[in-house]
Amino acid sequence: MRNETPFVHWALRTALAIGCCAVTSGWAGPVQADMAGIGVGGLIPNNNAAGITSIIGFAVDEAVESLEVSIDFGPLITGVTGHSHVGDLSATLTAPDGRQISLFHRPGVPATANGDNSNLAGSYKWIDGGASFTSAAAAVGNTESVAMGDYSAQSADDTVLTFESIFGGAMTAGNWTLNIADEKSRDVGGFVSWSIQLTSAPVIVVPETSSTLVLVVASILAARWSGKQGREKQRRVQRAWY
């Protein structure tokens, strides 16, 4: 009797090849794409932990790989733009799924009760691998503004945070929210605008029917082989009678 094992192996290999083709037929590889948005600014409520919130929304739904955030505080105009005494302020970014990161949180606190007394004027960017915002604030006096540049996100205790570890893999679609709060009295101000840039990759969804397709094809091939073997046996019996 003929050994069916080689055929079974061949059938399975064929079915797997067909299944793989079905799975990968739409595959184009991860293609990076940049998304950017600009949000409006405004006055930062004085001595109000709720602060001011500004939203940037994206419709395209991809997976975050990296991001950058910039805040333009504009010129230092009391009660309008810029802000004296940076130690009053904290800034937080929230993703559509609720993940949050502190960009900075009252620089100079708790080393001093009121925080650093330098000012914010101009544009600042937060990126992974940037400089210490708290150190930059401490490097200038109360009549000067923190130097514009690229900074790392920092928690309330000045621990360096990374966008990659917090937002990596998050989906881009929805509202990205910036909140800036002034948690002390006296000094007031506002910001002009803020922006976010996302580097993302499309999410490839593998159809769940692919494994079912493999099994169906294998079953059909095996059934056809069994039928062929049955017909051959019947012909041998008929030849033996005649």
Give an account of the 3D structure.
The structure is a single chain. The protein has helices at about 5-25, 135-140, 165, 210-240; strands spanning about 35-45, 50-60, 65-70, 80-85, 90-95, 100-105, 125-130, 150, 155, 160, 175-180, 190-200. With about 240 residues, the protein is an alpha+beta fold. Strands 1, 3, 4, 7, 8 and 12 form a six-stranded mixed β-sheet that branches. A hairpin with a 5-residue loop joins strand 5 (about 90-95) and strand 6 (about 100-105). About 30% of the residues are buried.
What does the largest sheet look like?
Answer: 6 strands, mixed
Label the structural class: alpha+beta
Poorly predicted runs are: 7-33
- Please tell me how large the radius of gyration is: 31 Å
Please name the defining characteristics of this protein.
single chain; 242 residues; alpha+beta; six-stranded mixed sheet; four-stranded antiparallel sheet; 4 helices; globular
